């Protein structure tokens, strides 16, 4: 059985003082323990999140990491540092990192492998642009990304890899992919993992949908067979809506 996973991607939101308030608020809600709840604040608030969430089941994730473990890489954060803090997940290959920071599939693949080697669980993002969807190339795009990003992984790695399907046109726009479209792509991603790594890997891997997920649509999205979770931006920035997402 794949455990559902709802992860809040805070992006570049919430200062230290604001994060403290939000985390304290989140702690006041009763969250369904059958669902894995994850908060992914900016780096500078990871230690705070670990400390404040210590007595809860809520996991902490980072939004990026370098593939090297130490050295002369000014401004970067090592997976070893994240592991040392008790961080569990690392979002990788988010479309904002691909677009604004020029992250290539080759780089993302190095990061995915490094996280796994260092005991962290990647949440690997993929997804097409509106133009690609409208021209019928959405699946081709996701295939190219995943073949490159997952290269070199073993069947065992899929106990620890989460894939997030995030159509770029649905991120932060209020436009959600229909639950059926999201399911169709997530089923395709599972079939792709099967073709590349075998049946066992495809049954184990957890696949999230992301893009304008909110309390009003989470239930329908989560009812789909191949959707095991959601990666949520905007709606994860308020304690009440985050709790409603986790308690879908
Ligand atoms: P959104 O962002 O929920 O605000 O659309 C999702 C994401 O980028 O992970």
TrEMBL record:
Assembly description: Homodimer.
Cited Pfam families: TIM
Pathway: Carbohydrate degradation; glycolysis; D-glyceraldehyde 3-phosphate from glycerone phosphate: step 1/1; Carbohydrate biosynthesis; gluconeogenesis
Matching HAMAP family: TIM_B
GO molecular function: triose-phosphate isomerase activity
Tagged with keyword Transit peptide: no
One GO term (biological process): glycerol catabolic process
Record gene name: tpiA
One term under GO cellular component: cytosol
Active-site feature positions: 94, 166
Function, in words: Involved in the gluconeogenesis. Catalyzes stereospecifically the conversion of dihydroxyacetone phosphate (DHAP) to D-glyceraldehyde-3-phosphate (G3P).
Subcellular location: Cytoplasm
Family membership: Belongs to the triosephosphate isomerase family.
UniProt keywords, alphabetically: Cytoplasm, Gluconeogenesis, Glycolysis, Isomerase
Annotated residues for binding of substrate: 9-11, 172, 212, 233-234
Protein's recorded name: Triosephosphate isomerase
Primary location: cytoplasm
Catalytic activity: D-glyceraldehyde 3-phosphate = dihydroxyacetone phosphate
InterPro entries: Aldolase_TIM, TIM_sf, TrioseP_Isoase_bac/euk, Triosephosphate_isomerase, Triosephosphate_isomerase_AS
EC numbers, comma separated: 5.3.1.1
Organism, scientific name: Helcococcus ovis
Keyword Cytoplasm: yes
């Amino acid at each position: 059985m794949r455990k559902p996973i709802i992860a809040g991607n805070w992006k570049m939101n919430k200062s230290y003082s604001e994060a403290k308030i939000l985390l304290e608020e989140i702690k006041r809600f009763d969250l369904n323990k059958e669902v894995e709840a994850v908060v992914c604040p900016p780096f500078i608030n990871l230690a705070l999140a670990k400390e404040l969430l210590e007595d809860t089941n809520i996991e902490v994730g980072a939004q990026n990491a370098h593939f090297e473990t130490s050295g002369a890489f000014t401004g970067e954060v090592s997976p070893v540092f994240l592991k040392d803090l008790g961080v569990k997940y690392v979002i990788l290959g988010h479309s904002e990192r691909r677009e604004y920071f020029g992250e290539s599939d080759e780089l993302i693949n190095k990061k995915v492998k490094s996280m796994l080697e260092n005991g962290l669980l990647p949440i690997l993002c993929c997804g097409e642009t509106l133009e690609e969807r409208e021209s019928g190339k959405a699946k081709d795009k996701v295939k190219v990304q995943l073949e490159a990003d997952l290269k070199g992984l073993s069947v065992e790695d899929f106990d620890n890899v989460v894939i997030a399907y995030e159509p770029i046109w649905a991120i932060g726009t209020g436009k959600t992919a229909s639950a059926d479209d999201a399911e169709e792509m997530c089923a395709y991603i599972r079939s792709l993992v099967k073709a590349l790594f075998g049946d066992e890997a495809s049954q184990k891997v957890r696949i999230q949908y992301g893009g304008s997920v909110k309390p009003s649509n989470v239930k329908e999205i989560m009812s789909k067979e191949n959707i095991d979770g959601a990666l949520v931006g905007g709606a994860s920035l308020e304690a009440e809506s985050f709790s409603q997402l986790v308690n879908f």
